[in-house]
Structure of Voltage-gated potassium channel regulatory subunit KCNF1:
Amino acid sequence: YKMAGDSRFPDVDTDGSEKSEEMEIVVNVGGVRQVFYGDNLNQYPETRLAELVNCLSGGYDSIFSLCDDYDPGKREFYFDRDPDAFKCIIDVYYFGEIHMKKGICPICFKNEMEFWKVDLKFLDDCCKAHLSEKKEELEEIARRVQLILDDLGVDASESRWKRCQKCIWKFLEKPESSYPARVIAVLSFLFILISSVVMCVGTIPDLQVVDAEGNRMEHPTLDSIETACIGWFTMEYVLRLISSPNKLHFALSFMNIVDVLAILPFYVSLTLTHLGAKLMELSNVQQAVQALRIMRIARIFKLARHSSGLQTLTYALKRSFKELGLLLMYLAVGIFVFSALGYTMEQSHPETLFKSIPQSFWWAIITMTTVGYGDIYPKTTLGKLNAAISFLCGVIAIALPIHPIINNFVRYYNKQRVLETAAKHELELMELNSAEGKAAGSRSELADLSREGKESPFYSSRIKVSHSDTFIHLLSEEKHYRTRLQSCK
């Protein structure tokens, strides 16, 4: 620091002759020079720029606690910060709100706002949404990294049963963890396919057999294959439930509910077959068993557990509820209007197929969706014209929300790939730090400096953080890492 008595620095003007409201403050941020007036800066007295107005009377210690360098001759304050972000932040003094420029990392922009001591409430809502999205990405990266670290780490203090549970969980839930786990995942996938094929083939009359009462039933061989598949699904579900770290969350998970729905009908049918006849009539038992066997179609959804494409499609549809709602609304309005018009126009024909407006709904549905079974069709000229307009409107209504849905699918798919790459990048940096033997010291030092949050020349000389750097504080306290996430570049 350059003290007040240093011969290379003239004395700071402390006579207070110049009012703070009329004072000019010259700020040089990353080579970009800006001039401010005290009356503008004092609107937000808690910000760093407003503190510059009154720091001259405090000497060089006060000055250098706020900036990186100071030129007394020009009364110019120097900051080694991002000039693009600074241009956005100073809008708060003129417009009372801040908009983030496109191309600036939201996390870095948030750090810049914290440095200039500008509250996040001045950030516009659209930019806050972008910042929240980036925070969610960092949380997801941190979660993935933490899961991988938990899988790699072995806690000697854990009991043998806990270690066994963790091994079973990795074996069944994480095919990428080992070669045997991949084999189990492939076997589970094959069992799902075999079970689904058996369910379909069992309905072919030529492959069915006739029981003593004359009723058709599945071939015993197919029934045995079905039993083997159910045995595999049951064993898999029970092992996963036993080894699950959070059994309540496991039981309420959507995919695990699907697993239960795929397994349960078999055991309920078996129970009704052997015990139900004593409690109810045989015909009622057979009807209940047939209804439960239909529920076996739920096992096809188990494929989503092994298919990232199906998972991405499910998420895209969840994110596209608004677009799908608009599509249904358009179709509902069109169905009501065109079915009413079709019914009215077809009443003049003696052989009309439009008996009522509710019956005409079916015609409007298959027409607007361009299915056109042909079971109901108009016979008058006006009715045909109405039908032509209805399917043209149906094509337009269906085509409108398709593009947003596809965009949601592509955006989520690309985001998952970026997050996966970023998580791998984090692990590579961790391995690099540990290989150099500097991980322990650098982590604790960075954690201390980050918690202090002091922007001073001494701090800047200790660690230089580029605008593509970020700090994942979501990992456990003893695991702090300074990283460069690809998502922030």
Summary: The longest strand covers residues 24-29. The beta strands are 24-29, 32-37, 69-71, 76-79, 209-210, 216-217, 470-471, 482-483. The domain at 24-147 is CATH 3.30.710.10 (Potassium Channel Kv1.1; Chain A). The first helix runs from residue 38 to 41.
